[in-house]
Amino acid sequence: MRFPEFIRAPGVLVVGEHCFSELAENFHFGNVECLKHALSKGLGLGIVLGGAIVKLPQIYKILSSGSVAGLSVASFALETASLVISASYNIRGHFPFSTYGESVFLTLQNFMIVLLLFWYRGKPLQATLAAAAIAGSIYALNDPALVPAGLLATFQAATIPISLASRVPQILANSRNGNTGQLAAFTVFNSFIGCAVRVFTTLHEVNDSLLLLGFVLATILHGILSFQMLYYWNTTPGHTKSYGFDQLHRKSKQL
User: Fold this and answer.
1) Is CB count within 10 Å lower at the N or C end of the chain?
2) Residue 255's pLDDT is what?
3) If you write DSSP's letter for every residue of 118-169 in order, what string do you get?
4) DSSP of 11-58, one letter per residue?
5) Nearest-5° Cα angle at 204, 20 to 161
6) What are the domain boundaries of the chain?
7) What digits encode the pLDDT tens for the residues 168-227?
8) Three-class SS of residue 253?
């Protein structure tokens, strides 16, 4: 069986000539390597598409509430720096777009969030400086004359501690405040799922231990944020969650 070219071409583009023929045309589902390759590509493209919208609920929540309460500037700024480096490293490494495309979209969305964080805190000058710093970094990191490949690899290695540092301030802020403030649940949960899937696609498609380690650590930290989102689900700013004797005492008074 052979599909018309307008159907076949996109499939070949995604999984390659051999695997498209094996799976879609010859129905050789026993070809484990092609099945794994197709799964990796499918998941990767799904994460890229999800990355294009994953932070939009966070942006909407900030704009609709007019508040950035509970959101850590340090967390989003460090995450943006990590994303800019990672996107540049993948682009210059000529890795498949399906293995990193969401980092490009996330960079643009984080760019907007960082500006909103400064703006709603009444710091327009810092917002302008942040915009200039992000734009300048993107330009420099994608110019081999300014940032040689060896230096870019060093920066990519640095994204591992940066990634750790970017999540920790938000995790600590949530614990300190006893709530997750203006964090958007959709963004938190989908970021966790996306990082977990990236561990699989990186193992299968990209032979780069730096990228793999980064995604493993990001999965763990996003998992902690997801747990906090569930733990503080019904808690609003100004109210903390309590358990134990205090909770039993309140219930006994109600009775």
Assistant:
1) C
2) 43
3) HHTTT-HHHHHHHHHHHHHHHHHHT-TTTS-HHHHHHHHHHHHHHHHHHHHH
4) HHHHH-HHHHIIIIIS--TT-HHHHHHHHHHHHHHHHHHHHTTTTHHH
5) 145
6) 5-30, 46-231
7) 888 988 888 888 888 888 888 988 988 888 888 888 877 778 788 888 988 999 999 999
8) helix
